[in-house]
Amino acid sequence: MTRIFLAFLWLFHWLPLRVQAAFGWLLGHLLYVLVAPRRRVVLTNLRLCFPELSETERRKLARRNVVAVTRSFLERGMVWWASEARIRRNVELRGLEKLQALQREGRAVIVLIPHFTNLDVGNRLAMEVDCVSVYSAQNNKLLEKMLLHGRTRFGNQHLLSRQEGIRGAVKALKTGRPLYYLPDMDLGPRDSIFVPFFGVQTATVPGLPRIAKLAKAAVIPLIILAKPDAQGYVCEFGEVWENFPSDDPDADTARMNAFIESEVRKAPEQYYWVHKRFKTRPPGEPKLY
């Protein structure tokens, strides 16, 4: 089944982006109706994070989100197989000079990337800079092979498995490569602390301040979003964080969550709401899913 899916993606990536987006729009609306368990996860997340919206507004947002997630999977083939020239035409990279300035200063750099739906498009950065990134091993070895291919096809990229932890990341940072860091997933109670995210106490690994402190690294955010009307994507660097990390890793982790929340509010339909972000609860609190 995986081979058939990957063959479809390979054929699909030859289509113009507008055609891919139209197909993703249709399939996303269908999946919103058919895949009830994941729809309930999205609606639960939106109910927790956007209580000010009406139920009708949340359902409309949830539908747009499932469409965005569906599109991101279908359009991933462009990142995995399209030519460098085509990717450059469709993916705009803004603010790279901010990262390059840090590198000229000899700084270790952590690129903070929230879980928006089009994360693989961030591989556009690999055309300009050799990076370190962390990945989760897949049970399906063929799928893992394709993920690794897609993320290492440009430049000289260094991938770490999540099991290598903070030491591996710090060691890799000292080679001069920026660390491509995705912090906002529920990885369970181990090593997590509870800090607010959209007003909900959320299990969050305080890896960002820990790694930044150990590696003496600067932190700069990179936000990856789809442009309106299937016009491609934009990867945009923000400003380097000042006074980070502090001597309080809990406060630093809360600051990170607050920043991600502020970015999500700008394009909530493109955040990865299909993930059970609030699965791990503080002791004594009921399950939410």
Notable characteristics:
single chain, 289 residues, alpha/beta, seven-stranded mixed beta sheet, two-stranded antiparallel ribbon, 9 strands
Radius of gyration: 19 Å
Low-pLDDT sequence parts: none
The major pleated sheet works out as:
7 strands, mixed
Strand order of the largest sheet: 1-9-8-2-5-3-4
Mean pLDDT: 93
Q: What is the domain total for the residues?
A: 1
Task: Describe the structure in your own words.
It contains eleven helices and nine strands. The protein is α/β, with parallel strands linked by helices and 289 residues long. It has one domain (2-270). A seven-stranded mixed sheet has the order 1-9-8-2-5-3-4, with helices on both faces. Strand 8 (217-226) and strand 9 form a beta hairpin. Helix 9 (165-173) crosses helix 10 and helix 10 crosses helix 11 (249-264). 34% of the residues are buried.
In terms of topology, how is this protein built?
Layout: H1 2-12, H2 17-34, H3 36-49, H4 55-74, H5 76-81, H6 84-90, E1 91-94, H7 96-104, E2 108-112, E3 132-135, H8 141-152, E4 158-161, H9 165-173, E5 179-181, E6 193-197, E7 200-204, H10 207-215, E8 217-226, E9 233-237, H11 249-264
Helix pairs in contact: 2-4, 3-4, 9-10, 10-11
